[in-house]
Amino acid sequence: MIRTAGLTEVTEETFEAEVLGSALPVLVQFTADWCGPCRQLAPVLGEIAREEADRIRVVQLDVDRAPGITVRYGVLATPTLMVFRTGEPVKSLVGARPKRKLLQELADVLDPARR
């Protein structure tokens, strides 16, 4: 598993509590050890996790270790980024991108006034 400071790894056993039960929106990176773009994106997500900790949680889920959740949410490619709010998926992004672009795409999640 690609571990980055500030990111929690969730599993099939912890997904409900860590993601669906979170008071904050949660950005889940569906990732895999063999995924090059996932490794590129991990430091960016670590920065966002630290900088936006009061507005969003960022976690990683290994698609090979959590196939049930991967199938449940229709994840077909890695990295897939999925934002959950109050237990429901509200946004899905596929592929690595620079931090600035990712923050632009997450603006509606990070800024409640823009919803």
Series of H and E elements: EHEHEHEEHH
Strand percent estimate:
15-25%
CATH superfamily assignment?
Answer: Glutaredoxin
Helix content: 25-40%
Unreliable runs, pLDDT <50, ≥5 residues? none
Number of domains: 1
Going by CATH, the architecture would be: 3-Layer(aba) Sandwich
Overall mean confidence score, pLDDT: 91
User: Largest sheet, if any?
Assistant: 5 strands, mixed
Shape: globular
**Strand sequence of the main sheet, in spatial order?**
1-3-2-4-5
Summarize it.
With 115 residues, the protein is α/β, with parallel strands linked by helices.
Task: Break the fold down into its secondary structure elements and pairings.
Layout: E1 8-10, H1 15-20, E2 26-31, H2 36-51, E3 57-62, H3 67-72, E4 80-85, E5 88-94, H4 99-105, H5 107-110
Parallel strand pairs: 1-3, 2-3
Antiparallel strand pairs: 2-4, 4-5
Describe this structure in words.
This protein has one domain: Glutaredoxin. With 115 residues, the protein is an alpha/beta fold. Strand 4 (80-85) and strand 5 form a beta hairpin. The longest helix has 16 residues, at 36-51. The protein has helices at residues 15-20, 36-51, 67-72, 99-105, 107-110; strands spanning 8-10, 26-31, 57-62, 80-85, 88-94. A five-stranded mixed beta sheet has the order 1-3-2-4-5. The model has no long low-confidence stretch (mean pLDDT 91). It has five helices and five strands, in the order βαβαβαββαα. GO terms for molecular function: protein-disulfide reductase activity. This is Thioredoxin. Keywords: Disulfide bond, Electron transport, Redox-active center, Transport. Belongs to the thioredoxin family.
